[in-house]
Amino acid sequence: MNKTIIAPPRSGGTTELIRGNRNSFTYLNYRHTSIQHALKVFGNFKEYEITDDDKIKPIVHDIVYISGRNRIRHNPPQAPHNGHLVCDPFTANLLEKMYNIDGYHTLVKLIEEFNSTFTVPHVAVKDIKPNGVLLIDEEPTIDFFRPKSKCLLVISWELGIFSRDNLVEKLIQKIPSSIESKYPEFVNWLNELNKKLIELSREWDKATNNKKDVLVSGLKSLPKPPYVDLPEDEKDKIVVELISRGWLIDEYEVVKLFIASLFFKDYYLRSKKTKHEIYLIADESKLLLKEWLNKWEKIDIRINNPDLAEWFYRSLGRNYVIKQLEFPYLNNFIIVETDIKELAVLLNKEGIPFLVLTATKEEAEKAKKWFKSNGIDIEIVDEHTTLSQIAEWIQLGRNLVFYQNSTISRGIDLPFYDIMLVWSTGFACPYEEWLSEQLNDNSVLVKKLTQETEQCIMRIAPVKGFKENSPKFVAFSTEPNLNILKPRFMGKASPSYLIELKILFCWKIKKHIEKP
């Protein structure tokens, strides 16, 4: 029976996913650091056999770990030592250099001979023949199997300075020649869309009143994508063709937009105080590659959202069972409503480092400016920040600001910090925002935003064997929407009271930082 593991952070979700499928499987994750973690988890399962001369020896599995060809040749990831025979991208890179062979195809050829495979989704779809058990770990990995709405144009302004970022214009320069020749209608649509977006941004710039209305009415002039009315099986064939090919890194965004356009629902304007964004809304309720997925005998997934499991298996026509894991460090958390700015000043005065969560990267920049203006040093963790840089900042006791749906929120553990200040929440969810307007019901949107906020908060939870008894303080400026963490909301508290409480428990910069 197919199984869903519903697992919040620190609950051992990956362990549970692999536990029942140790002999032979294909494991998928969208991120190589998570694949390396899964390989460590696999190594923790010790199995033994009795030899012919009555000796006990460990069972060694043959494992192939595959990344894309470009990753093999540039900065190849390496499998951790886990007691098994693992051929990985790092080994493939060495083979290429020493023997002038194709390292990628060398790993692919090993799939049928080895017990298990660990890889990213696009490699699996491109080069793995479905057989046996498929394990899909984490929700962003599931997202690979559905079209995603795409941002087309960003118009922003601040302090009277106007800027325009036409993402379609950039993509036109990166269209693969094979798509140009086989799908000229798609290329023509992109060019027409680009022309309309340029005209629209100019009209917005010229308008003196009701500037947003210019964009709202302009959405109606944007051209409909060319293949929307194709039969579903024809769309699926195009998707399989696009995903099964190897592309240059710069070409993948073109491919993603092409797939989104096949399942076009609408154009949508997302407006904030200093920014307008125009999105192509794709039908994200559509599950892609169903034929490939249904060739697997069994599919187990590990996610946080039961609704996603229901959608996934219903789309495949499969039955499944659910195993719910509990968040083991729930009682470590103390969540309050307070004046987070005043609290930040007091924490800085006492030398107690903290994390700051914002909704977006732009909000992170604004928060950093405020902290700097109040004499508080802080660094932004973004998509360019390396793990080694984060580790260095932690050792120095630096304050860090990060944003939702980013590097930290997607899986970097920071149990070293005991305090998180929630500056703002509400990252871009264009499909759910559009859907809430269409249905006049924002429950799906609220659920997604709440889940992301909690995922971010849980990044400071203890890890096994490290600070397991440490309290974790989270401060909001207003009463938060919470789900798993809701029982830990304690109401309002003054910053002065909280600072007295926190000093008793939290490490300071001048103290030695405990290492896990």
Task: Describe the protein's architecture and organization.
By secondary structure, the protein is α/β, with parallel strands linked by helices. It has 3 domains: 2-144 and 289-324, P-loop containing nucleotide triphosphate hydrolases (Rossmann fold, 3-Layer(aba) Sandwich); 150-282, no CATH class; 330-503, 3-Layer(aba) Sandwich (Rossmann fold). 40% of the residues lie in helices and 20% in strands. It contains 21 helices and 21 strands. The strands form 4 sheets. It has an 8-stranded parallel beta sheet with strand order 6-5-7-2-8-13-1-14, with helices on both faces. It has a 7-stranded parallel beta sheet with strand order 17-18-16-19-20-15-21, with helices on one face. Strands 10-9-12-11 form a 4-stranded antiparallel beta sheet, with helices on both faces. The longest helix is centred in the middle third of the chain and has 23 residues, at 184-206. The chain is globular and about 85 Å long. The two termini are 38 Å apart. Residues 508-516 have low confidence and may be disordered. This is Helicase C-terminal domain-containing protein.
A few lines on this structure:
The protein has 516 residues and is of the alpha/beta class. The strands form 4 sheets. It has an 8-stranded parallel sheet, with helices on both faces. Strands 17-18-16-19-20-15-21 form a 7-stranded parallel sheet, with helices on one face. A 4-stranded antiparallel sheet has the order 10-9-12-11, with helices on both faces. Strand 9 (150-158) and strand 10 (161-166) form a beta hairpin.
